[in-house]
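input
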Amino acid sequence: MNRKQVFVGLAVVVIGVAIYAVLRMAHRSAAEAPEEGSPTLVAVQVGKLTRATLHGYVDGFGAVLPAPAEGGQPPATAHVAPSVAGIVARACVAEGQSVERGALLFELDPRAAKVAVDYARETVARQKRLFEEHNTSLHSLQDAEAQLAAAETQLALLQVTAPLSGTVTHVSVRPGEAVDLNTVLADITDLHRLVVAANIPSAEAGKLNPGQQVQVLTDPPVLTALAYVSAAVDATNDTVSVRAPLPPGSALRPGQLVPLRIVTAEQANCLAAPAASVVTDVGGRSVVAIVAGDEATQVVVKTGLREDGLVAIDGPGLKEGDTVVTVGAYGLPAKTKVQALSP
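output
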């Protein structure tokens, strides 16, 4: 056998081995490949459809303030000022003290006023004697009596009393200080008549109506109802002012800033799905994937209110207790095989 025949024989052997290897690999790939049309198994997490009452909210921040004048009641706070100028002789209250309406708060120096009263009384007594002796006119007697009344009034005005019942929240003067009609001596607030006031963006004002529940999100939370919604928009910040009274004993203080939530809508006993299970398909529709056995099928739904991780839904054939895909719901085919995993 010559060299050429040897080379030809070797080439035939190499080609044969290569063909065998290719056929072997093709056979293995065909054996391992799924049958045409067989669905891919997708690992997902699932949840349940439930019945719930869901709410719509408008959220905001408010300030605790004394109640304004409304419903025939005066404002729940007052700046106490003297009716006459003078020198503070005595302060009868301290900050934090509770007072009743009419209680004495401050007394201005009465010495000059008392001298005037004593002089006016002597004048009246003299005029009465003279009138009885027919040595003075009735007009002179009445004038003396009027001067006495004015002097007594001036003396009485030196005593500054509480214009309302409440708590003294601030005292701004001390004995010996000179004051006039523009001086604020103290502040009094009725802590049983407080409100929470807030400014809500005008875009959400259409949802607001008096009587809606207001949740003041403090610890513990305080529940009240919306009492006032402004009819005008504040052009400086594009908001509408709202106000709700606080129940007595709420433990909130004037000036405190609090988060709040106004309940604007409610869907009672509605079918609700976990929020993660409601996704948007390629057509822009809201869908949930309902799991039956090992198969998930998309159902088009109409969504409603969202609250606490739940979404109100309505769709054909859906019922409480149905299993829906949560984690892995986005991008699922319309119908596919799934394997539920523990969350």
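quick obs: The longest helix spans residues 3-32.
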